[in-house]
């Protein structure tokens, strides 16, 4: 989170620096320095700002080291508002971090795989520069490209013009970095017969991104929520 974003969140909430500093657990002097960019906004302050001032989770710090299991990823999605897991609770994570964490998994529960396009659909202004770079470092750009493309198709169907616009640029960048190597969408342990079946029945979009997956828009029930 930048100091500018922190200041805008505070003013939008109608709070003085004194009031906000008390809510955030820091001194007014430190808050002032953070807002001016003279001190970095700490992860703890960013977390409290998201909770106290209704700041978008896209402003939270990101870490490429995060590694969560299926259960924790479900809780992460629930905390971010994904309807199917809304009953689960967890500390908020940046949606870009959650998406990278999931896409970098060799294997992922099918219900979580189906949830992934919801993240770019819901948080289309996430940190795409960081996410794209991290995906490319892991050779996961085809997975990310497919997920973003599915989200963009869903946004077009729902007439969400701003979302479509936000997703266009990262999709173009991922298109340029598309790999020729065949992959799955987080289902590397599939037996050969299952992968061959998915390959045979995959959509044109999945084939374009060289992914053996049967995931299509029709499977994304929660995207309409």
Overview of this protein structure:
The chain has 225 residues and is mainly alpha-helical. The chain has two domains: 3-55, Orthogonal Bundle (434 Repressor (Amino-terminal Domain)), CATH 1.10.260.40; 73-224, no CATH class. The chain has 13 helices and two strands. The protein has helices spanning 3-12, 17-24, 28-36, 43-53, 70-80, 95-103, 110-115, 118-122, 128-137, 141-157, 161-176, 192-201, 204-208, and strands at residues 183-184, 211-212. A two-stranded parallel sheet has the order 1-2. α1 (3-12) packs across α3. The mean pLDDT is 91.
Any idea what the radius of gyration is?
19 Å
Shape: elongated
Spatial strand arrangement across the major sheet: 1-2
Low-confidence stretches: none
Number of helix segments?
Answer: 13
> Helix/strand-derived class?
mainly alpha
Count of distinct strands: 2
Q: Helix proportion of residues, in percent? A: 55-70%
Please indicate the count of domains.
2
Portion in beta strands: under 5%
Write down the overall mean pLDDT.
91
Name the helix and strand elements from N-terminus to C-terminus, one letter apiece: HHHHHHHHHHHEHHE
Largest beta-sheet details: 2 strands, parallel
Cα distance, first to last residue?
28 Å
